[in-house]
Amino acid sequence: LLTLLIIPISSYAQSEDLQVIENEYSNKDLGLEFILPDGWNGAQIPLLPSSIDGLLSDIILATPDDIRSYNGTTFILVMAGEVTDEFKGDIANIPEPPNPVKQIINQGCELISANYITIGDLDGIEFESICKEADENGNTITAKNKIIFANQNSPMRFISVLFIAKADEYDSYIQDFDDMIDTLALSGNKVRVDKLPNIEERVMLEEETFVNIKTNSDINDFSFNEEDKSISFNAEGEENTIGIAEVYLDNVLKGPYTVIVDDKPIPFIDNETGVTFIYTHSLHKIKIIGSEVVPEFPITVLPLLAIIIGIMVMISKSNQILKR
After folding, report:
1. What's the rounded Cα separation, in Å, for the pair 298 and 193?
2. 302 falls in which pLDDT band (50, 70, 90)?
3. 165-212: pLDDT as tens digits
4. Mean pLDDT, the chain, whole residue set
5. Which of 40, 113, 145, 201 is 20 to 30 A from 72 in CA distance terms?
6. Could you tell me which of 60, 143, 58 has the C-alpha nearest to residue 104?
7. Is pLDDT of 128 > 50?
């Protein structure tokens, strides 16, 4: 992702027959349509090979000024694709779509926010992250991005919309991106932030309590290990689609937390009540480690309980003396 920040955008837009896109854009074959923010323009850019048999694809790059001369590093990148009817029986030969979740995890980016979304039959995610990378001179570039990504396997179809900017420019343009997403449609379907199904898992401490997991994955083999202050479970979903999990741990474990997927720590959002993290579906073994197990009574409450019990004992003794 950050490689695109290092290379001037204008270097992608030097073709003499470049067709500049302003305002509304529509691709009837893909069913893709959106309206660019005021003042922005874009163009179809051949960032990827366009000769993949059976893959109908569209790549639009948009900038907040004339794309033909723009030398900044703030941009929106729209990528969409599907396998045509002729090649639906030969999906194995079609490369899997670009997956920003894998890129974010592999680059060790910091996850800021994440929401489960749907676009018609496509499941996906909307998330924000901060990434750092050195340019050719060794200077660190800090970029902030927001991504909409949704896909399905059968038939293969995907859409990815990326907004990326240097961290100090992000807030100036993020509303433009959000306004564009409000106009985005794929086969007439808008982007919807949906509620995740909730799963309750029982945990026995002094009393029975629960860990709530909101996720679009199938969850099994849940376990709580009081000795190493952790919970673990398996998460599974349709191969190469996006998974998201919100795990509410405040009844069982205190933070700070560590999230480990298949024996590797991953970036996550540390909330007051638990953690949120994202992954690409297959069968994953997930482990979340806390700093301590939640006691039946918080430590700060114990002195107060002792005082109350002491007062009750004194009152009881006083009543007994008065009765005499």
Report:
1. 36
2. very low
3. 999 999 999 999 999 999 999 999 999 999 999 999 999 887 889 999
4. 82
5. 113
6. 143
7. yes
Report in angstroms the alpha-carbon separations of 70 from 37, 46, 66, 103, 147: 16, 17, 6, 26, 22
Q: Are 196 and 205 in contact (CB under 8 A)?
A: no
SS3 per residue for the chain:
CCHHHHCCHHHHCCCCCCCEEECEEEECCCCEEEECCCCCEEEECCCCCCCCCCEEEEEEEEECCCCCCCCCCCEEEEEEEEECHHHHHHHHHCCCCCCHHHHHHHCCCEEEEEEEEEECCEEEEEEEEEEEEECCCCCEEEEEEEEEEEEEECCEEEEEEEEEEEHHHHHHHHHHHHHHHHHCEECCEECEECCCCEEEEEEECCCEEEEEEEECCEEEEEEEECCCCEEEEEEECCCCCEEEEEEECCCCEECCCEEEECCEECCCEECCCEEEEEEECCEEEEEEECCEECCCCCCCHHHHHHHHHHHHHHHHHHHHHHHC
Work out the pLDDT band at 288, boundaries 50, 70, 90.
Answer: very high
Q: Are 41 and 62 in contact (CB under 8 A)?
A: yes
